[in-house]
Amino acid sequence: MEWQQLEYFQTLARIQHVTRAAESLSLSQPALSRSIARLEDEVGVPLFDRQGRTIVLNRYGQLLLKRVNRILKDWEDGKQELRDLIHPEHGEVSIGFLHTMGTSLIPDLIGAFRVQAPQISFSLMQNHSYSLLEHLDAGELDLCLLAEPTETKMSIQWTPLWEEEIFAIVPLGHRLADAESILLSELADEAFIFLKKGYALRRTTDRLFEKIGVKPRITFEGEEAATVAGLVSAGLGVSLLPDLRGIDKSKIIHIPIREPHCHRVIGMALIEGAYLSPASQRFRDFVLAHFGRN
């Protein structure tokens, strides 16, 4: 069965006259008749009672017409939905980002963009890097903001955007709370609160401790940077975090680390060669310009 057969059937069912239906479809009458005959062969029953060139839907045809109307309506709705999605003023942008960006950076970035494009909507996914990349590769995300992908076989186009310093985070009253800066090795005997394995920041902190030959004693692994900071403020351990806006800093101290150089680079990831809607292209260009990378 061909898709056009459904359209021909719907038109003929509405007009109920072969010649006039064929004219409406810019089709010859024999071609329309052959198409309807093939459809009837496909479904196994006659769909019309014929009276010369005038025809009337029979009960089989009426039943099928309900289904065909629904199928064609869904098809038209789907095309309209796609047109809306790719329209540069009314589309949707699907973004993935790291948990540590959810407190302020992503809301601020989207808020600034919506001043320019208030009709564009967003679909947001917050997760760790490898999960985000899987969703990106599956076409479920248009772009991601995350640390540089390292262990992936995907064809990623990654553009660095900014560098974040990573600080030692300690509670008020900690023995190092008044230090202007420290060596990472000075924390070697502390109890640590980290993000779970698989998170970009966790991989970064693991590599930093590997550099100095220390295996940190980890007492808790969380899924949110705000949770980690909260547990540090409660005196349950120390951590390594960027200077995050949007979390309570009244009971924690950020201490710069002199050695090793503690930082991470955050960038934008896309799948090379993947289609980007006009709305997504517009947001991508906005992000690049926002961080001076255009």
UniProtKB/TrEMBL annotation:
Domain HTH lysR-type: 1-58
Keyword terms: DNA-binding, Transcription, Transcription regulation
InterPro entries registered for this protein in UniProt: HTH-type_LysR_regulators (IPR050950), LysR_HTH_N (IPR000847), LysR_subst-bd (IPR005119), WH-like_DNA-bd_sf (IPR036388), WH_DNA-bd_sf (IPR036390)
GO molecular function: DNA binding; DNA-binding transcription factor activity
Highest taxon of source: Bacteria
One Pfam family matching this protein: HTH_1
Keyword Amino-acid biosynthesis: no
One cellular-component annotation, GO: cytosol
Recorded family membership: Belongs to the LysR transcriptional regulatory family.
Protein name: LysR family transcriptional regulator
Species assigned in the record: Brevibacillus nitrificans
Lineage: Bacteria, Bacillati, Bacillota, Bacilli, Bacillales
